[in-house]
Amino acid sequence: MLSVQDTNTPVTFSPELISKFADVVSRYPAGKQKSALLPILHLVQAEFGWTSVPAMDKVAEYLSIQPIEVYEVASFYTMYFLKPQGKYMLEVCRTGPCEIVGATPIMEHIEKTLGVKEGDVTPDGLFSWRGVECLAACGFGPVLQIGPEYTFYENLTTESVDKLIGDLKAKGNN
Amino acid sequence: MARKLLLEHINVPGINTFDVYRSKGGYAAVEKALKTLSPDDVVEEVKKSGLRGRGGAGFPTGMKWSFLAKPEGVERYLVCNADESEPGTFKDRYLMTYIPHLLIEGMIVASYALGAKTSYIYVRGEMMPQIRILEKAIAEAKNKGFLGKNILGSGYDLELYVQPGGGAYICGEETALLESLEGKRGNPRIKPPFPAIAGLYGCPTVVNNVESIAAVVPIINEGGDEYAKVGIGRSTGTKLISAGGNLRKPGVYEIDLGLPVEEFLYSDEYCGGIANGKRLKAVVAGGSSVPILPANLFLKTINNEPRLMSYESLADGGFVSGTMMGSGGFIAYDEDQCIVRNTWNFARFYHHESCGQCSPCREGTGWMEKVLHRLEYGHGKMSDMDLLVDVSKKIEGNTICPLGDAAAWPVASAIRHFRDEFEWHVTHPHEATTRNFGIAHYADPLPKLEEAAS
Q1: pLDDT tens per residue across span B80-107
Q2: pLDDT at B451
Q3: Total beta-carbon pairs less than 8 A apart between chain A and chain B
Q4: Is the pLDDT of residue B399 over 80?
Q5: What is the ipTM score, two decimals?
Q6: Its pTM surpasses 0.90
Q7: CATH number at residue A145
Q8: Does any domain span residue A9?
Q9: A35 vs B85, B182, B250: nearest CB
Q10: Which fold has domain B18-229?
Q11: pLDDT value at position B416?
Q12: A100: which chain B residues are within 8 Å (Cβ-Cβ)?
């Protein structure tokens, strides 16, 4: 079960972010602004790396809904992180079609290479990884994705994973 | 080679842009519909085409449209279900990535037919690249006058928006999708009322799969009767099949419904046979939810007739010896794959994705995962197989939405067809953890009919 991690770090939404929120809200009929919740949570996560309680409270305020309405959504959907993650979160598909073409060895390799268990963050704060359910790319497995752009890496091999991790390390925090 | 209705121009460079798509005859269906047909005419053509929902249920699309309530002064909505999450299925991702305007064009025609002035494409959140592709395509279409106010001078207005999901398989169920689009948890609603009466924001709503909407384009261009000539019997038209697993050439293929499965599986035009020169052991024909079949029963029905890629032929034999077309998520397993491991993997998926609303599904999927896990890791008991079947029967039909059935069927069918493999895991606990149970008699060449029937 997911739990919501509390934090006291204050959160400010930039005017640019608020204008993106407003653009989303304009897609729905008047009074149905709650429909913007999922897209707005994606925007928040892209900005801050995760959805913290203060951020969710501010989203609730922005949409004129109760904070619990935001928490229950953020904890229901798997894409929202309720605790900080590495800058690069490697999400590897672990479901049937990817599994039969080698998803498990890829995850074992990532665990060994990064030296952290599923869900943990590397000491430099750059990486975390986890297995996720079907990513609808079953013909090109094994696959992994990296948010917030959700770039896809297909037909993974241990070599291609090494190269990917090397490239990301070189990129670092830039 | 069969004619392609959806993917004919998929390899044209730049087909993802408005101009190239238009130069290949794109948006002709919008012009034809808005200038020469009434909304009811469009519905009538779709009815005549015999198009069946391509998301999995196979319900006739035209009939679904005709159920839409049209009270005066109440908004109506069309929502496209692009929450493609059924394991084995990746056709919608492919279509949206490479030929996004086909979906936009279909959305305009379908929205016109239904009288929707605002329509949404609900795309699963993981497909952010596809969301950006669609938003760009929508902006192009709007810029060229195919969306917005007074489209092509017809007086018809339409706004089209893309909505990201948050990563939940359950949101592929249409009422869960609507809940999610309203900014809530994806808990399916009790039906009735059906979305056609009370859907998005309580208004009459139609929810259609990406491929169903895209198919409206050739239906309007060629006419429903012409479309219905493709295919076989009540399986009309073409279908996108997502072929994955141990295949030489995995990928998305557009087939005429009625293509023999043997041709689809082994011909070089399609999957090109099993990878690495191995033999076929089993097939999941329509996404992880449908019953798994051993190779012999998949290639031929219990009556020894060649099986076809059609709704009827795949379902031939019911759940005893048949399966379903589902969403067209085709997964092939070679002789080295372990059915117990695969069944456990799928059970874990359904346990993870159960919304938790109905007890039989919430609890049952968890127990099935646990029992299958212990079987796979050499701690199983002989009674586990009957226990699993019992649990699956208690889930099936006892939940608000079909996720319960979808979780029950793969387990029940795997035990029905591969019971000896499960038993081997119990009798060989140490071997079960170190090697797979490669069992030749499931693989082709075909066994004797009596063996298959037992």
Answers
A1: 999 999 999 999 999 999 999 999 999 9
A2: 46
A3: 150
A4: yes
A5: 0.94
A6: yes
A7: 3.40.30.10
A8: no
A9: B182
A10: Rossmann fold (3.40.50)
A11: 93
A12: 245-246, 331, 333, 337, 342
The model's pLDDT over B350-368, given as tens digits with 9 standing for 90+, comes to 999 999 999 999 999 999 9
Annotate B246-271 with b (16+ C-beta within 10 A) or e (fewer).
Answer: bbbebbbbbbbbbbbbeebbbeeebb
Question: What CATH number does the domain containing A19 carry?
Answer: 1.10.10
In sequence order, what DSSP letters do the residues of B235-259 get, joined into one string?
EESEEEEEEEESBSS-EEEEEETTE
Number of CB atoms found within 10 A of residue B74's CB: 11
For residue B201, give both structure tokens. 């924001």
Residue with tokens 């990563």: B167
Place of tokens 């995850």: A107
- Token readout for B213 is 């909407």
Choose, out of A34, A40, A100, the residue to mutate when testing the contact with B (most B CBs < 10 Å): A100
Average pLDDT of the segment spanning A124-151 = 94
- Whether A164 and A92 map to the same domain: the answer is yes
**In whole angstroms, how far apart are CA B236 and each of A81, B53, B54, B58, B372?**
44, 11, 11, 11, 39
CB contact under 8 Å between B126 and A35, yes or no, is no
Kindly report, as residue ranges, where domains of CATH 3.40.50.11540 are found in chain B.
18-229
Boundary-marking domain end, from A37, A52, A76 = A76
CB contact under 8 A, B352 and A27: no
| Contact B89/A at CB under 8 A | yes
With respect to residue A32, please indicate whether it lies within any of the assigned structural domains.
yes
% pLDDT > 70, chain A: 95
B298 touches chain A (CB under 8 A): no
Inter-chain residue contact B163 with A80, CB threshold 8 Å: no
- Class (C level, CATH) for B239-336: alpha beta
Structural domain that includes position A110: 88-171
pLDDT reported for residue A104: 95
